[in-house]
Amino acid sequence: MADGLGLGRNVFSRMVREERSDSCLRVNRYPLLMCGVETLSGQNLIGFGEHTDPQIISVLRSNNTSGLQICLTDGTWASIPPDHSSFFVNVGDLLQVLLTRDIKDFATSEGMRQFLITKDVDFSLGHCV
């Protein structure tokens, strides 16, 4: 991935291996669809809610539960089919800024009928919370 981005070959592995690394492994459990709860825009809250990924990259692997969605450039939401044998790589806000020097409004949303568990590895420049 680093080669494709024109970065040093070991840039990501150094982030994980360094003793003072801020990288972390986080397991998320996204809640069920909550009927009747509304966002500030007046729409129903969908799963974890609309959000961006602030770190450099997130590597996701689902528990084969549908619900992951991404916002396309035209503002429509597209569902990503679950695949428990694949990893989903999300470019985070920080990498977007590092590569383009531009902050865009990217968002993902999870609208689940059952809960979704993802395992993701966050490469960031700050501490995990």
Automatic annotation (TrEMBL):
SUPFAM superfamilies: Clavaminate synthase-like
Residue span(s) of domain Fe2OG dioxygenase: 20-129
Source species: Clitoria ternatea (Butterfly pea)
Name of the protein this chain belongs to: Fe2OG dioxygenase domain-containing protein
